[in-house]
């Protein structure tokens, strides 16, 4: 290929990540119409408005207890729930 390569002079440079520089870049972005991208909602399933069923994430202590027991047994949380369901339906 003949001719000069116009891209040969480009080099990768590390970005400045100081607090002041990040704030300056955010201010410029907001001034040009870019919106804040940080998540606003709390993650996790919310109670059903129809039946008020709850997911374990609604109660953090329940989710933590399930995770701890599954880890103690060396199985996944899904496997633990399957075992519990099996016991529940057999009685």
Measured as a percent range, the helix fraction is 40-55%
Radius of gyration: 26 Å
Q: How is the main sheet built?
A: none
Order of helices and strands: HHH
State the shape. elongated
What's the rounded overall pLDDT mean?
A: 78
Structural class: mainly alpha
Strand content: under 5%
Poorly predicted runs of 5 or more residues? none
Number of strands: 0
In DSSP terms (H or I, runs of 4 or more residues), the helix count works out at 3
Tell me the distance between the termini. 79 Å
Structure, briefly:
This protein has helices at 19-31, 60-73, 77-90. With 91 residues, it is mainly alpha-helical.
Question: How are the SSEs placed, and which strands pair?
Answer:
Layout: H1 19-31, H2 60-73, H3 77-90
Biased composition (Basic residues): 39-48
Organism: Paracoccus seriniphilus
Protein name: Chromosome partitioning protein ParB
């Amino acid at each position: 290929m003949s001719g000069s390569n116009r891209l040969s002079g480009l080099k990768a440079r590390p970005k400045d990540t100081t607090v002041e520089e990040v704030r300056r870049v955010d201010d410029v972005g907001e001034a040009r119409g870019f919106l804040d991208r940080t998540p606003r909602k709390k993650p996790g399933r919310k109670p059903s408005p129809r039946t008020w069923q709850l997911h374990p994430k609604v109660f953090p202590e329940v989710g933590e207890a399930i995770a701890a027991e599954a880890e103690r047994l060396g199985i996944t949380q899904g496997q633990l729930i399957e075992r519990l369901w099996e016991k529940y339906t057999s009685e």
